[in-house]
Design brief:
alpha/beta; GMP Synthetase, Chain A, domain 3; seven-stranded mixed β-sheet; 33 strands; about 30% helix; about 20% strand; globular
């Protein structure tokens, strides 16, 4: 299997032994008691309430989800004294300092508090090897799906919404039965551990069932949203040589059914490695030598999740493809389970019976984080539809959502549409509004906080597909300042560094992470020597993760994100790359070359112009501009369509022929002058981009 190998096998040394600390048998008995109680509560769960097991009936009656128990982060802080941590009464800053300095103690505490389910306990937290070769939980065996089905069960497991309302509900028993049935079907049809199972699906409950079935048998999952055109799907999935495709015949968008039958057919034809195809929502599947979804989840047998090594690949997420084909980023079972439980249980304060909805597609990492609400026993809500100004608030109201996630752009659109969310919709169960995907400005942050009231925590976070998690975000015990992110998250050794590798406070620097995180990639797909992985994150500062964002760490410990320091585009919270977009435009006969950049603007806007050069005799008129946008819409995705198409006198390159995307973006933002750019083939071109940027800023 062509999984990236980061280096030769290394001798496993226990960090417990290195630190002079062995596992406390009392703590292990405590963890076993917790897991026994969870298994018992699955069989005999207490009555559920709309606000979760920690919400009183009085609170639910008055419509506010006030917690009758302390936040999880407070309870966790108190118990850390048994693990070498600061213990009860410690500030969040003290907890963060301990979490990044004592990797073994912190993650052992997370393991015990969150009751990770191990078939075989690991020998250590890490193997003690520095980034980028760190192995987490060596010797351990587990399965992501086993952790899901070990949870207390309150209410439904998964709820599907479309533009007309709730379309589907799966109880925990139904979810487990469908996952077991689909797992058995795939095994019967020859899908094995390590094979790739790929999804081309809208945000529906079937996608969650498909992922859990793949994880259960030890296959490797990868998903693409149904909004992507077939060519964009193949740019990702063909790399994996999948044995199984689970696809939908279409999706809902603004009251219309968008048919994807021809795209699915093209994908199937191009993937010669396929042995199994399952079609969701299509009655022609049988005659096309494919299974219907209904047949695939009809019980013909039952298979429990198979324990796999801690570092076994769980899924492949794809980068945006800025400089070429999208990169396949591999994450592991144990790394994801540990990181997501820390994030959701401790920092989001998510509990059994909570209702979790974050608007996303399968292409975005937030789909992966949101489905991990199941690890906490929360109900996960999906939405197959367009995020119109009212749509997501309507999902939150009818789903009695406790934890809601949207993009800054969506909040701005809601404000501009004249909505008053708390007055216009029943959001009385809402406790947390999370926001990520791009920079949340102070003005939009304050608007949301004012509209929702003091009972709802409004917080911004920053992270990435690369780690399928966050680096910094909201914390219930830390004061929130509009325009800033509350704090660096526990276990994330994040800093702002100068170009010389010096830490900065109250100054803009590169976002770096200086010690390992469990959900850092175990490699890139088809990167056997690990060279592409090292080049992506560890080249500028050897042994240190450079993420590609400009950030400021304030003297209060909060974080301000200023945007991407590389050329990744980030529109409406969906990261994308320029290569996909430019390629289809450069295929037009009138276009010789194209350059697209994303510009974060001071008012929170995001401007995505495309610059093109034309063949001799061609002219950029309204018809050609429409043709450019239509090519992107049809062959890539509606989300990739540029805001403007501008004729340029030329596209600047490095001496080796690489387009100067980052310098052009920074010139358009006014961050650098044209004469500051070095190593360029045609320096005279930069004056044009400088003029475009000046004009744009003057007219905003």
């Amino acid at each position: 299997m062509p999984v990236g190998v980061l280096g030769p096998p290394r001798h496993r040394t226990s960090t417990f032994t290195q630190a002079g600390r062995r596992r406390d048998p009392g703590r292990r008995r405590h963890r076993e008691d917790v897991q026994h109680d969870r298994r018992r509560s699955r069989r005999h769960p207490p009555p559920a309430s709309t606000g979760g097991p920690t919400t009183s009936s009085t609170d639910v009656a008055t419509g506010r989800a006030h917690m009758t128990t302390e936040p999880a982060i407070t309870a966790f802080t108190r118990l850390t004294s048994s693990y070498g941590g600061p213990g009860a009464g410690a500030s969040y800053e003290q907890m963060w300092q301990w979490s990044v300095k004592d990797t073994e103690g912190f993650w052992t505490a997370v393991n015990d508090y969150c009751a990770l389910v191990w078939e075989t306990e690991p020998d250590a937290i890490t193997d003690g090897v520095a980034m980028p070769h760190t192995q987490w939980f060596p010797g351990g065996r587990m399965n992501y799906a086993s952790q899901v089905f070990a949870q207390q069960r309150h209410g439904p497991a998964v709820v599907g919404h479309n533009e007309n309302g709730i379309s589907q509900t799966l109880s925990w028993d139904e979810l487990e039965e469908q996952v077991a049935a689909l797992t058995a079907t795939l095994v019967d049809l020859g899908v094995r551990t390590g094979d790739r199972v790929v999804g081309y699906l809208p945000d529906r409950p079937e996608a969650i069932v498909a992922f859990l079935a793949a994880a259960s048998l030890g296959a490797v999952w990868s998903g693409c949203g149904a909004d992507l055109a077939g060519d964009a799907v193949l740019a990702r999935m063909a790399q994996l040589e999948p044995t199984c495709l689970i696809a939908a015949s279409g999706y809902h968008h603004r009251g219309r059914w968008i048919d994807r039958t021809s795209d699915v057919d093209a994908v199937r034809e191009a993937l010669s490695s396929l042995r199994v195809t399952v079609i969701v929502g299509e009655d022609r599947a049988a005659r096309d030598n494919a299974l219907t979804w209904e047949a695939a989840v009809t019980p013909t047998g039952r298979r429990s999740p198979a324990a796999v090594p801690s570092g076994h690949p769980l899924w492949v997420l794809f980068s945006s493809g800025t400089t070429g084909p999208p990169k396949g980023i591999i994450h592991s079972h144990a790394g994801v389970v540990a990181e997501h439980l820390k994030t959701l249980r401790l920092l989001f304060d998510m509990r059994p019976g909570d209702q979790f909805f974050w608007y996303t597609t399968l292409t975005w990492m937030m789909w992966n984080l949101r489905l991990s609400g199941l690890l906490c026993g929360a109900t996960v809500h999906c939405f197959d539809g367009a995020p119109t100004a009212r749509a997501l608030w309507e999902v939150a109201a009818r789903g009695k959502i406790t934890h809601l996630g949207v993009s800054p752009g969506y909040l701005a659109a809601s404000r501009d549409a004249g909505l008053h969310p708390a007055a216009d919709f029943d959001l009385t169960t809402l406790r947390m509004l999370g926001c990520t995907g791009s920079v949340l400005t102070a003005v939009v942050h304050q608007w949301a906080a004012d509209e929702l009231g003091p009972h709802v925590s409004v917080s911004s976070s920053t992270g990435g597909t690369d780690v399928v998690s966050g680096f910094a975000g909201g914390v219930s015990t830390v004061a929130t300042r509009p325009g800033e992110i509350d704090a660096r998250w526990l276990g994330v050794d994040m800093h702002a560094w100068s170009a010389e590798g010096q830490p900065l406070i109250d100054e803009v620097g590169e976002l770096v992470v200086t010690t390992p995180m469990p959900s850092m990639p175990i490699g890139f797909w088809n990167d056997s020597d690990g060279s592409r992985y090292r080049s992506a994150y560890f080249e500028e500062f050897p042994g240190v993760w450079r993420h590609g964002d400009w950030v400021t760490i304030t003297n209060r410990g909060s974080v301000v994100v200023h945007g991407r320091s590389d050329a990744t585009l980030n529109r409406h919270g969906i990261r994308m790359g320029s290569a996909d977009i430019c390629q289809v435009v450069e295929d037009l006969p009138e276009v010789t070359e194209a350059l697209v950049v994303g510009v974060e603007e001071p008012d929170g806007g995001y401007w995505m112009p495309m610059f093109i050069t034309l063949t001799e005799g061609a002219r950029l008129d309204e018809e050609l501009s429409k043709a450019v946008k239509a090519a992107v819409r049809e062959k890539v995705s509606p989300r990739h369509v540029p805001d403007e198409v501008i004729e340029a006198p030329g596209i600047p390159h490095t001496p080796t022929g690489k387009k100067l995307e980052v310098p052009v973006k920074n010139i358009l933002r006014g961050l650098i002058r044209a004469d500051q750019v070095r190593a360029i083939d045609q320096p005279e071109l930069l004056g044009f981009y400088h003029h475009v940027g000046d004009t744009r800023r003057a007219t905003r």
